[in-house]
Amino acid sequence: MMENTEEKNPLTIRVNILTKLWTGDIDGKNSERRLTGIIGSIRWWMEALVRGLDGFACDPTDTDSKSLYRKCEFDSSTFKKKFNETGSYRKAFEESLKSICPVCQIFGCGGLSSAFRWVKKEEDNSSFTLELIPLRPVSQELWWLLDKTLHIITTYGAVGGKITQKPYPNSDINYGIVEFAYNFSNLHQKKLSDIKTWIKDIGGRQAVNSSDLPNFKYFWFIPGFHLKKDEINKFLRLDDNGNKINTNLEDDEEDFYEFLRGNIGESKKIFSFPGKSIEIDEYSPWKKLHELFYSTIEIERLWGYVRDEKDVNKVESILSRLTRKEIIKEKIIIGVDLIEQL
Ligand SMILES: [Zn+2]
8 CB contacts (<8 Å, ≥6 apart)? Predict the structure, then answer.
């Protein structure tokens, strides 16, 4: 019987840090916040994936009660009503969960705790373990989502802050590439088609997602490839000093580039990792071990995201102009296709 795993033993995820990792505060501290930073990043990727699967993921930063995308809130009055009707705590809880998006079902929201207690253990410069202690039964579908999110981050993505930073021209500094090593194989047996059916009814709000929020369908990835700083500037239509190249673009073109460039407090939408070497700490005794054991993870990668299919085509054509067309054609993976391989 696997419908709801009652497994209460902690699950261990090994987090191997393959580059520098920034999970600090804006004021520059980068020690205590590591766990929150990592969890925040996992959540961000999962939100995008859920939207890419045509499910609903709320915007946890949106607190406007009139907004369609506002963060979820566990409705305790529905819970009480259902409990009075059925007399079953479990049934009432499951009913109330239906109005909570899948991401909040895992990470929690107002009135609902996280499905797990996340405990960070055993740490050295280049790795630590995350223990997930389930606080309530976790459905196979939610395990599937967590499993695939961690896989996507390891293989294609990045976590933490500073991942757009390339401080010096052509700098080879990488931030945020981690490998999540875990085995959830006995926790779910769901297929993509099961998840697509399930996700439609979760979280309510008719699965409306804002086109301004990251949607995995419109992510693009080029593993084993990167762009240098000057190429990224060209991609964003910026000069060498980072100033906008002044040309008369149509309004929607200008809007497209504004979106790609980001703003204060809002990230650029292109992320490049040269991945030449493992830069945890030149003097770390673990460095050599990492090179030996984790060489299967390709650090070099380029990825980004846009808001719709039309913009994906634009990105492909800009990239083709910047570098050899064949490379882009052969190597680029669009989120909508990647989903089908999950
Ligand atoms: Zn939510």
Answer: 133, 134
Phi, psi angles (nearest 5°) of residue 272: -125, 135
Closest listed residue to residue 177, CA positions, set 159, 197, 151, 200: 159
Residue 232 is assigned to a structural domain of this protein: yes
The alpha carbon of 161 and the centre of ligand 1 are apart by a number of angstroms equal to: 22
pLDDT value at residue 203: 75
- Tell me the C-alpha distance between 280 and 14, whole Å: 16
Paired residues of 219 in beta bridges: 305
> What gap in Å lies between CA 179 and CA 166, rounded to an integer?
21
Domain-embedded: residue 33: yes
Q: How far is the CA of 90 from the centre of ligand 1 (A)?
A: 20
Mean pLDDT for all residues in the chain? 85
Going from the Cα of 18 to the center of ligand 1, the distance in angstroms, rounded, reads 31
99 C-alpha to ligand 1 centroid (Å): 9
pTM for this structure?
0.89
Q: 271 is in which domain, residue-wise?
A: 7-340
Least confident of 1-10, 83-92, 101-110, 158-167: 1-10
Helix (H, G, I), strand (E, B), or coil: what is residue 222?
strand
Residue 314 covered by a domain: yes
Q: Are 18 and 151 in contact (CB under 8 A)?
A: no
Q: Does any domain span residue 1?
A: no
Give the mean model confidence (pLDDT) for residues 66-79.
Answer: 90
Structure tokens at 257: 């580039």
In 3D space, the residue among 174, 169, 146 whose CA is nearest the CA of residue 158 turns out to be 174
Counting the structural domains of the chain, the total is: 1
pLDDT higher than threshold 60 for residue 232: yes
Residue 5: CA atoms inside 13 Å, Cβ hemisphere, count?
22
CA trace torsion 207, 212, 217, 223 (10° rounding): -150
Tell me the mean pLDDT in the region 141-157: 96
CA–centroid distance, 136 to ligand 1, in Å, is: 18
